[in-house]
Amino acid sequence: MSVFQALAELESQGKGAVLCTVIRSAGSTPRHEGSKMIVYPDGHILGTVGGGELESRVIKEALDVYQQGKPRLLSYSMVNPKEGDPGVCGGTVQIYVEPILPKPVLLVIGGGHVGKAVAHLGKFLGFRVAMSDDRPEFCNPEAIPDGDEFYPVPMRDLPQAMTITPQTYIVMTTRGSVVDVPGLPALLDSPAAYIGIIGSKRRWLTTKKALLESGIAEEKIARVHSPIGLELNAETPEEIAVSILAEIIMLRNGGTGERMRI
């Protein structure tokens, strides 16, 4: 399979990787301009940018780039390994390392009125929508037409049922602390970009107290956004969905949430 075929396959499957391209070389180098290599999240590769120590270093950088989600320009001199160079060819090379990130996933836990509205708006905004509810009748294509994936399992089983990545945004529109307390710890150990829980301040304080009493560390609990969303005085499920997705967009894009009126 060629690098270009592999990139098309990644897009069709909604998966991610890192594309490494030699953009400049001078003197004697293992590969020249245009050479490409894909580094997959598990570390295996397709193509090559030169092999040996050079390639080993690029793979390591690529895996970090995938986690950070930002491209990186790498420059190497291949003259003197005693000074840290990755080879003795005698040339120099620059490699552009670019993350190919999958479409962000909106994981909505709880298929009630608000969860359904969040799924609908998330789909409109370009997220891949994953739905979960331990009640199967609330977690299927008929109940949630905008869902792409369905996981009718207890919350604690979600990390085993699906792949949660740094491009996953978790919105918990659940029934209450009775569901959140046993299920949330498994999600706090995931690399999700965002974890938000619907409900009042009192509900969150009750949930937080129970989590602390069960031995969950304060720094893990601090990952949670609750009450969820921006303050819009939202009332209807649709308005609440706007509030929730507005917070996610703000955090994802580095916004402030302030009015733009001068």
Order of helices and strands: HEEEHEEEHEEHEHEHHEH
* Record field, number of beta strands: 11
Secondary structural class? alpha/beta
- The helix count comes to 8
Looking across the biggest beta sheet, what order are the strands in?
Answer: 8-7-6-9-10-11
Q: What would the principal axes of the Cα set say about the shape?
A: elongated
Q: What's the mean pLDDT score?
A: 90
Helix content: 25-40%
The N- and C-terminal alpha carbons lie at a distance of 54 Å
Largest sheet: 6 strands, parallel
Strand residues, percent: 15-25%
Low-confidence stretches: none
Estimated radius of gyration: 22 Å
Considering the chains and any ligands shown, give keywords for the structure.
262 residues; six-stranded parallel sheet; elongated; five-stranded antiparallel sheet; 8 helices; alpha/beta
SSE layout:
Blueprint lengths: L2 H11 L3 E10 L9 E4 L5 E3 L4 H17 L3 E6 L14 E9 L4 E5 L3 H12 L3 E5 L16 E3 L6 H4 L6 E5 L4 H12 L5 E4 L3 H13 L4 H4 L2 E2 L11 H17 L9
Helix pairs in contact: 3-8, 5-6
Describe the 3D structure.
There is one protein chain. Helix content is 34%, strand content 21%. It contains 8 helices and 11 strands. The chain has helices at 3-13, 52-68, 113-124, 158-161, 177-188, 201-213, 218-221, 237-253; strands at residues 17-26, 36-39, 45-47, 72-77, 92-100, 105-109, 128-132, 149-151, 168-172, 194-197, 224-225. α3 (113-124) packs across α8 and α5 (177-188) packs across α6. It is elongated. The N and C termini lie far apart (54 Å).
